[in-house]
Design goal:
The complex is a heterodimer.
Chain A: E1 18-23, H1 33-44, E2 51-54, E3 58-59, H2 81-87, E4 94-98, H3 101-114, E5 119-125, H4 126-135, E6 142-151, H5 159-165, H6 175-186, H7 192-201, H8 210-221
Helix pairs in contact in A: 3-4, 5-6, 6-7, 6-8, 7-8
Chain B: E1 2-3, H1 13-17, E2 23-26, E3 31-34, H2 44-48, E4 50-51, H3 56-68, E5 79-80, E6 85-86, H4 95-101, H5 123-126, E7 133-140, E8 147-148, H6 149-161, H7 171-174, E9 176-178, E10 183-184, E11 192-193, E12 196-203, H8 207-218, E13 224-232, H9 242-248, E14 255-259
Parallel strand pairs in B: 4-5
Antiparallel strand pairs in B: 1-6, 2-3, 7-12, 7-13, 8-11, 9-10
Classes of the chains: A alpha+beta, B alpha+beta.
Chain lengths: ~220, ~270
């Protein structure tokens, strides 16, 4: 479901990228999981997440089926966390995305105390994940390493584009659109914040990190490809 | 996916958001057009773009007028102004494309939900990967390249020849006609999908051997691969078996997904009073 493992970048570039997600194990901890998943998301709110997600219904940045023409001049770019929480209605994976390690650690500690029985994972740098578990007061159970991209890598776009596109682990953020947003920010046609929210709307499970995207877009303005 | 030519105003927004770059403005028809062989039915265009319901005739007239003046209205980049995208009924084998490309769609064609399984994400409850085991997820096609099943089959056959067992609940495994040889059903071999994941579990001492097999196949595969390696940690939370092997194989371990170990069985046991 959520697919956060293969985000592109060096470990240091995940300093503002912490995805904490909850998943029930099918046949073992999925009965009555909906209220637990909702509570997980509710509990994240005091820790200032930058996105929330439900793999079935989407994230806090969503497209609309009924856009008003005035949206071209005045559009609400804020995340709608309540829509994510209220939308959880069946077995799914839910996620809370943070741009501060301290917030992720504190949230993880709160989730541990809640003891819902859901499987809790954190996706970030290898060391960051270890530190978060340690700070929350527990030893890691298992780890899934990303070995990065290989094979026909000549078909991949440049580093800046890859950093932006791979934050949607299902590949819904296209290289063409990421390139366009990088160009628009460079040209001053949109702010990094606006561009990040456009990108985040394409991520269908809400694990996109608009804060990291904003930083990457801002940095790209001053850096050649 | 279809684009209704009566509605499309050739604004070009969708040409950028297509994950496979399969949408272009046809110079003959002056409408956005989908290369159906390259389209993986991911629905990013339909689900990801916001929609307005403007009258196509008026939008074309305004756009045409501005174009004559060498002016261009700069709309929001993620909006289809005339709701021109229209999903079509997908039949076999094309329906496989959507099952592997649109993450919100359960694998109706395969009977499995998602592109992979729960792998280490629920390992604290499932116990799928034990100490002494290593789990591999070999993902094809992402980001933004795509993969056809004949390319995946080249890998599954090589792995099967080494005697590995494929994860039975994985969608790719469910499409094999013979999981002992890694043979995938013939009628889908030409289908292109956004990504697909092959999952295997072997003894930890076979880690380098599996990586070697993947390296040998991937160099001529024509698509991109992302390998994930799952391992059970020691009691103190360290993982001192697989990481050293990976580092010896030349990998720098930058990113990981960490199972915090808070999960437990909460379902009621069947058959108990």
């Amino acid at each position: 479901m959520t697919n956060t493992l293969h985000r592109y970048g060096k470990a240091e570039s995940f300093r503002d990228d912490f995805v904490v997600f909850a998943i029930p194990s099918k046949g073992k901890s999925d009965e009555g999981c909906v209220p637990k998943l909702k509570r997980f998301l509710e509990m994240a709110l005091p820790f200032a997440p930058v996105n929330l997600g439900d793999a079935l219904h989407g994230g806090a940045f969503r497209p609309t089926r009924n856009a008003n023409p005035t949206a071209h001049w005045k559009r609400d770019m804020r995340p709608d966390f309540r829509a994510v929480i209220d939308g959880v209605d069946a077995y799914t994976t839910v996620a809370a995305v943070f741009d501060r390690r301290e917030a992720a650690e504190a949230f993880l500690e709160a989730v541990k105390q809640d003891d819902s029985g859901l499987c809790i994972n954190i996706s970030t740098s290898l060391e960051g994940g270890k530190q978060c578990c340690c700070a929350a007061g527990g030893a890691r159970h298992s780890v899934g390493y990303s070995l990065g991209f290989e094979g026909g890598t000549e078909k991949l776009p440049d580093d800046q584009v890859l950093t932006l596109t791979t934050m949607c682990g299902h590949g819904m953020v296209s290289a063409g659109f990421a390139r366009k947003m990088l160009d628009w920010v460079k040209e001053g046609r949109r702010t990094p914040e606006e561009a990040a929210s456009y990108l985040a709307r394409f991520c269908s499970c809400g694990v996109y990190n608009p804060s990291r995207a904003k930083r990457v877009l801002e940095e790209a303005r001053h850096r050649p490809e | 996916m279809n684009i209704n030519p009566a509605k499309c105003v050739a604004c070009g927004n969708c040409t950028y958001v297509c994950t496979m770059g399969a949408i272009y403005i046809d110079p003959a028809s002056h409408r956005a057009t989908i290369d159906r062989d390259e389209c993986v039915e991911c629905y990013a265009c339909y689900n990801g773009m916001s929609q307005e319901h403007l009258p196509p005739g008026i939008v074309r007239a305004v756009r045409g007028f501005l174009k004559r003046l060498r002016l261009r209205f700069e709309p929001e980049p993620d909006i289809c102004p005339t709701e021109a995208f229209e999903p079509d009924e997908l039949s076999w084998p094309r329906v496989v494309r959507r099952a592997f490309s649109d993450p919100r769609v359960p694998h109706e064609s395969t009977g499995v939900q998602g592109r992979g399984t729960e792998e280490v994400k629920t390992n604290d409850v499932s116990g799928r990967i034990q100490r002494g085991d290593v789990g591999f997820t070999i993902e094809f096609g992402r980001p933004g390249v795509g993969v056809r099943f004949h390319q995946i089959q080249a890998m599954t056959r090589a792995l099967a020849a080494a005697g590995v067992d494929f994860e039975p609940k994985n969608p790719v495994t469910s499409l094999m006609t013979d999981d002992k040889t890694g043979t995938i059903r013939e009628d889908i071999l030409g289908e292109k999908v956004l990504s697909a994941i092959v999952e295997i579990k072997v003894a930890a001492n076979r880690t380098e051997e599996i990586i070697g097999i993947v390296h040998a196949v991937e160099k001529d595969l024509g698509t991109v691969i992302a390998i994930g390696v799952g391992a059970r940690c020691d009691d103190d939370g360290e993982e001192s078996t697989i990481a050293p092997i990976l580092e010896r194989s030349g990998y720098r371990l930058e990113r990981a997904k960490t199972n915090a170990g808070y999960g437990r069985i909460t379902n009621e046991l069947r058959g108990q009073a």
